[in-house]
Write a structure and sequence with these properties.
homodimer, 289 residues, alpha/beta, Rossmann fold, 6-phosphogluconate dehydrogenase C-terminal fold, 2 domains, 10 helices, 8 strands, 48% helix, Prephen_DH (chains A, B), NAD (chains A, B), NAD(P)-bd_dom_sf (chains A, B)
Chain lengths: 289, 289
Amino acid sequence: MDKDFGGFKNILIIGLGLIGGSIAVSLKSSGYRGKIYGFDLSSERVKKAVELQAVDEAYTQLEDIPWDEIDLVILATPVKTFEEIAKKIKPFLRKDTVVTDVGSVKGSLVEKIQNILSPVKFIGAHPIAGTEKEGIENAVVGLFKGKKLILTIDREDESTKRLEKFWTDLGAKVEVMDPHTHDFVFASVSHLPHAVAFALVDALIELSKETGIDLFLYPGAGFKDFTRIAASSPTVWKDIFIENKDNVVHTIERFIQSMEKLKEYIQKEDEDNLIRILSESREKRLSLD
Amino acid sequence: MDKDFGGFKNILIIGLGLIGGSIAVSLKSSGYRGKIYGFDLSSERVKKAVELQAVDEAYTQLEDIPWDEIDLVILATPVKTFEEIAKKIKPFLRKDTVVTDVGSVKGSLVEKIQNILSPVKFIGAHPIAGTEKEGIENAVVGLFKGKKLILTIDREDESTKRLEKFWTDLGAKVEVMDPHTHDFVFASVSHLPHAVAFALVDALIELSKETGIDLFLYPGAGFKDFTRIAASSPTVWKDIFIENKDNVVHTIERFIQSMEKLKEYIQKEDEDNLIRILSESREKRLSLD
């Protein structure tokens, strides 16, 4: 089927950061013909987005946006801001405009936004793509190509099919998941690893203080790979951890149990159990490549 | 100064795995003119090493090695085997042959090996290089180029200067450290991150079992980078964890404290402390690039 991006003629991206910017530049390079409008509270980011020709027009005032032209609104701000933004944009929205997001946390937040925007349709979406960088100046053309995109919906309808087509035309592989399962899965495979990376660097800071040896002078290649994600945005991750608190805390507790188990095997020099746990981890990890 | 590899005319590498093999192929490609002999208990590895022309001759029996020709012996087997190997090779060694290693654990092991081999000189060395792969077939030419190499010595003498020249000529950047400091530093920057990676994959296996959701179907890029080192050799890592037990256990405990601290901040939605700890980790991590 031809690329029609779900038939959404003009698009508004709220939040001109790395993800919002990458959607814009990827749309342009994929042959999207509609207009791309941008909104951001920062006039600097708005200026940059226009200069980079990522968007056709960009605004810092909601009143200035040509709302009647807009078929699809994408929230690309931190998840924490969704509720407030939903309340503010509601009076402007056409009833048949579709609103979606690209946030990493869904769960009850999706229902909350749906209730605020109703009867306007809100569809939760989460592209599994990104870098540890920030800002529209680091936007990547084709960021979503070959990457998973999770639509957190209970059932398909015309709007969800259109949004699926939109993301498929951007190269993403769309999967459907209910919002609560989504939050558990991404607590495990994304939020927990980020928490672990932050904690690992913190532990090395503390160990350096304790001994007076600057451990950061000896970063092996493994350590660098391992903690790359510790360079991710503190604000974004603080919000994600808090928004998905219950799942994140549960997975951290489960991880600490694994860490304690490994520590115990090392302390007891329990070679059989060490080999078993290390081999199981190795096999699982190799199966990902 | 010209490359003379410390004047060691012929070399014996004991253990024809990834590191031993990479030393051999890197020597050959760097213009080393002496003979490179290899030893391994496995006749298959010996055969492969000769086929790949990594070594000139290789043996499975210590008696067959032309010991009188050998100026430098490099132990490139798991650290666990050093003591036994030292005892077995001692009767064959010339008094002026230098013995060294490439193991990740030093500490009291270095003194032990020095005592066994005395009056033959043993110098502990640890190249900070490697991959998660195993086997001489994955040997890398230039693996040590630009990488740190730690000589765990108390003071310099003629032999340590020759070994320093050997590694410098292979492209390594040589640093000197006492063996106990070495073990604490590498527990922190290498052994702990490996333990964390293994435990993280283990936690995801357990969380998958608990919920019936195969979490390994959703590996984000961060998770993949993060756990790459969990694919490292279980035998090698079991040995390292046990040989460096006290330091590894201490750093794991320190890391669990950091993890608990982060968990508490998330549970309490303590935004200020979250931002602080995440920002500190981010800055430290960025300073490595």
